[in-house]
Amino acid sequence: MMRTKNLVLGCMLLAVLLGAACNDGGDDKPDVGGTKQDLLNRAYIVSLESDEITVIDLNKMEIMARIPSYGVANHMGELNGDYTKFYVDSSKSDKTMVIDVEHFKKVGEIETGKHPTHLSLSLDKSLMAVALEEENAIAFIDTKTDTVKKKLPGFYLPHFMRFSPEGRYGYVANLEAHHITRVDLRTLEIDKEIVMDGFKGSPNPDMAPNEGGFGDCQINQEGMLFAAHSKTGQVLAYDTLTQEKKAEIKVGLKPWIVYADHPFLNVPMTHLVPNFGSRDVSMIDGLHAALAGAERLPGDEEAYGVNYNSESPSIAYVMNRVRKDVAMVDITQGKLLKRIEVGGNTETASTTADGKWIVAAVSSANKVVVIDAKLGTIAHIFNNVGKYPWSVTIPRGQNYCH
């Protein structure tokens, strides 16, 4: 989440204003309702400053529903295993809302705990892990009964849970500690802490105040976990298959997240790391993490997201908040190709499962832009998408939050 709403990557190249096929999508569509659609071809937009969930039909490129969640300061959403329910964390009401996305209505609310933010679905689809930032705990929701199965304390501003490829362990990034916490999903108990060199682990951990720890701990398709440590400017690499710490890789100042988790098999194992302090983006070779150095792309502060795609697998898109653009970069050459002006600060985005579209929330403009991943041009614009659209979720796509 990070308390400041940050986002940008920079480079000394010309800004490019791209033509767009504009589609408001909201003027002639009913706010709620509609017939049953292909559940896989949708984007769900969660707004921070209004309660509605905006549903975009990606086949027709139109807004198909606006669903009131009755949440306050909604942070992000995640789908259940069959894509029929959408769970939305309402941070200021301490609840997780349950939305029926077949009938476009809220069907429940779960008292999860203090300040729920990020959600992630276990690989067996049975549990939704919810980070409770002000309770320093993880709530595990049973997705069949929509009840809290267990609330597990022992974290330090937990920021996300990610899952090892075999599904046995969940790994939690602590934003205010110097370690990653491992949870055994069979017992729902903490069983290990992976500590940065030079720092103590529990029971007397060295704390990392002012969000000096880990923003996320994403795991790539080879089972390698990468977690950027803000205080030291290093990336912890841990093999979740052999359960071995492999390296601490020096990157830039105050790195945010290593974007390593995506569904695209043809994308090179090169992961980008936005560095807030040095205002650049580092590149890590994901195939040889133990040996990798880091190459750097010139940049700017506050780049909150990186999106990959299978249409142009060597191209990544970096969401920028301060510059109000999206940077198109070649990850094989380490070059910025161009900037796509979007008319506001871009907080997060999601790539569709087929790799064709990048769907980005332009928060300050209350709109969503759809970028053609192959061409690097804006294909559609949706205006009036809630108030401060904050996160994007697409079934089987590349999804993340900040």
Question: Explain this structure to me?
Answer:
The chain has strands spanning 15-16, 42-47, 52-57, 62-68, 74-79, 85-90, 95-100, 105-111, 116-121, 127-132, 137-142, 147-153, 158-163, 169-174, 179-184, 189-195, 218-219, 224-229, 234-239, 244-250, 270-275, 280-285, 294-298, 303-307, 315-320, 325-330, 335-341, 346-351, 357-362, 367-372, 377-382, 389-393. The chain has 402 residues and is an all-beta fold. The chain has one domain: 7 Propeller (Methylamine Dehydrogenase, Chain H). A hairpin with a 5-residue loop joins strand 5 and strand 6 (85-90). Mean pLDDT is 88; it is low at 1-35 and 287-295.
Number of domains: 1
Quickly give the structural class.
mainly beta
The largest beta-sheet arranges its strands as 1-27-26-25-24
| The CATH homology group name | YVTN repeat-like/Quinoprotein amine dehydrogenase
Within the CATH hierarchy, at the fold level, what is the topology?
Methylamine Dehydrogenase, Chain H
Low-pLDDT stretches are 1-35, 287-295
First-to-last CA distance? 4 Å
Q: Which bin fits the share of residues in helices?
A: under 10%
3D shape: globular
What proportion of the residues form beta strands (DSSP E)? over 45%
Radius of gyration: 19 Å
The tally of helices reads: 0
Tell how many strands the DSSP assignment holds.
Answer: 32
CATH-scheme architecture: 7 Propeller
CATH class: Mainly Beta
